[in-house]
Amino acid sequence: MCWSAKADLVAGAGIAAVGVASVALAARRPRDLPLAALPLLLGVHQIIEAAVWRNGGGTGPATVAWAVIALPLLALWVPAAVLCAAPPSARRRLLVPLAAGIATAAALAYALATRTVTAEIRGHTVGYSLGLPQAGLIVVGYLVATIGSLLLSGDRGLVLFGVLVAVGAAVTVVLWRQEYISTWCAFAAVCSVVLLLWVRRRRPPVPRP
Question: Which residues of 154-190 are buried (b: 16+ CB within 10 A; e: fewer)?
Answer without folding.
Answer: bbebbebbbebbbebbeebeeebeebbbbbbbbbbbb
